[in-house]
Amino acid sequence: MGIAASELCRYVIRPTLIYLGRHSATAESLLLGIAASQSALGSALHDRRGHGLYRIAEPRHQALWDHYLALDPDRASLVRGLASQHAFLSGPHLELTVNLRYATAIAWLLVEEQNTPSPPPMIYWEWPESGARLSSPKVVCEISPTPGKPVFHH
Asked: How many Cα neighbours within 13 Å face the side chain of 107?
């Protein structure tokens, strides 16, 4: 048995997005669609691919905390406020199954994390030596400020 889509939206998704300061009709629809496609709105809450309505895998959950929320202590505190006091410490991934608002917040932050644009790369130019024919500068190195993004050499 799953959860009625209208009730999931009214009592879980909308209040969670409002709490996070991220509410929009588009965000509601996206999270509702994710829950429908991943767990049939709660008909299947746990399998080896992930936990809860949104089927969030443990490594993704951990990585979100380690590499995204750790960089924003205020947001991390806000999200942590949705988690159970003691259960979160002993089984943080279980919160994704039993705590709908926490799972919704994590699902939304995973969407945000994936859609956060990387800062533009820093470009270092090589200018012609004095006396050389003036031409356009040549890019010698491009350094990406985001770890894991490619670095280009021209």
From this structure: 31
Q: Could you give the angle at the alpha carbon of 55 between the alpha carbons of 52 and 56, nearest 5°?
A: 100
**Beta-strand relationship, 46-47 and 50-51:** antiparallel
| CB distance 61 to 84 below 8 Å | no
Give the per-residue pLDDT at 58: 93
CA torsion through residues 115, 38, 5, 81, sign: negative
Residue 128: pLDDT band with limits 50, 70, 90 = low
Judge contact between 154 and 143, C-beta under 8 A.
no
Phi-psi region of 139 (alpha: psi -120 to 50; beta: other; left: phi over 0): beta
As a whole number, mean pLDDT of residues 9-31 equals 96
